[in-house]
């Protein structure tokens, strides 16, 4: 059981590292948000699962409920953050055309000084 816990902790730390690198390296807010929420959610869930399986801390139902809460709420929060970034006029890099043009009202991008 301890081997599985260590594997989950290692995988979780790897996903959290990937999320952190993505937040630093990706060019626009939507891509950064995607990296932080997708890899961050999976990494956090794996880390929490590893701690629960290790038996070092008696978490039980609290850990399971925390994991379910993370998996249910972080994707919704990410969608709302992405929508807010789009509507506020954040620059979109790497797209040839705006896929939401005409669907959502979008502010003008800020003028670079």
UniProtKB/TrEMBL annotation:
A matching Pfam family: PhaG_MnhG_YufB
Region annotated Disordered, chain positions: 94-113
Domain of life, per lineage: Bacteria
Record bears the keyword Cell membrane: no
InterPro entries: PhaG_MnhG_YufB
Transmembrane segments: 46-74
NCBIfam families: CPA3_mnhG_phaG
The protein's name: Monovalent cation/H(+) antiporter subunit G
